């Protein structure tokens, strides 16, 4: 089988993880890099031994024979880059947040559909092995039908050091991190019909909100609370773990700090260590997220090979993005927002 050829667009902080993961994945290779910043481009090309480098995406697409592009730029560039790649007949994996707003996201999905190409969002938190273990226990019916969940991410880790835009953008925690946690809630309970959100800014040095508490009503009647904070000083510092408490009609499940999964059923607890493996290229505490990058990119390659729609496709991600938009609207207008308003 021929190796799929891809190009990375955006060689910044997080793209280094993409490159390590691509190097570990069979059946696909990154043959070209693009970044507007010459230093990032040069350093990434050197670190991963890629010869073909470009400062302009259109030039790269015209010059290279590619099967896919991996878009690892920040959100403002996602729509033009996705549309350019789709128009060139390329498959696309695009980082989250997928788009700045729902109209852009819908247009991006349409562009890939019209080109008959696969468009996947790099929505990787639901692919973390610990989260996946919890989701699969629930899907296997271990706790019966889930009716309540708390999906929680609370930390005071200094995320601004590596990603300075998180401190200066108007929107912060829901758009950057809450988007993952809302997506995990969707992976467990399915789509939501309404959301109520409260937001706060505790850290005076940043522009956006760093605390969000959201209440979701799901189509299947379940309720979930999705709570996120980057101003929670605690021991142990759990960055970047998502903690879960899920109640079902036959039992309950908890994913606790330290990747401890507890399934309670028939009156007893079963305890599992679901710590992510330490891949050769990862670094604590990011190893959890880094492993999920490799898993999601592997899923993308499998979808390209089989021609199937990815689990976290652009189309699917419209529902996660809608929750983000609805949460901001809810917080702004201090009311419950129905998803069908958007
Ligand atoms: P970054 O600013 O470090 O890197 C982005 C790079 O893209 C920069 O080098 C910039 O020069 C380049 N770029 C921007 N527009 C371009 C264009 N049109 N053409 C070519 N190059 C362009 O950003 P980052 O922190 O690496 O974040 C990138 C994305 O990854 C963001 O959307 C962020 O939310 C996401 N992210 C995801 C995770 C995750 O777990 N899924 C974690 C961290 C960051
Ligand atoms: O995963 C992310 O999207 C990152 C972080 C973990 C810092 O929130 O931006």
TrEMBL record:
<dbReference type="InterPro" id="IPR051317">
    <property type="entry name" value="Gfo/Idh/MocA_oxidoreduct"/>
</dbReference>
<feature type="domain" description="GFO/IDH/MocA-like oxidoreductase">
    <location>
        <begin position="132"/>
        <end position="254"/>
    </location>
</feature>
<dbReference type="Pfam" id="PF22725">
    <property type="entry name" value="GFO_IDH_MocA_C3"/>
</dbReference>
<dbReference type="Pfam" id="PF01408">
    <property type="entry name" value="GFO_IDH_MocA"/>
</dbReference>
<dbReference type="InterPro" id="IPR000683">
    <property type="entry name" value="Gfo/Idh/MocA-like_OxRdtase_N"/>
</dbReference>
<dbReference type="InterPro" id="IPR036291">
    <property type="entry name" value="NAD(P)-bd_dom_sf"/>
</dbReference>
<feature type="domain" description="Gfo/Idh/MocA-like oxidoreductase N-terminal">
    <location>
        <begin position="6"/>
        <end position="121"/>
    </location>
</feature>
<protein>
    <submittedName>
        <fullName>Gfo/Idh/MocA family oxidoreductase</fullName>
    </submittedName>
</protein>
<dbReference type="GO" id="GO:0000166">
    <property type="term" value="F:nucleotide binding"/>
</dbReference>
<dbReference type="InterPro" id="IPR055170">
    <property type="entry name" value="GFO_IDH_MocA-like_dom"/>
</dbReference>
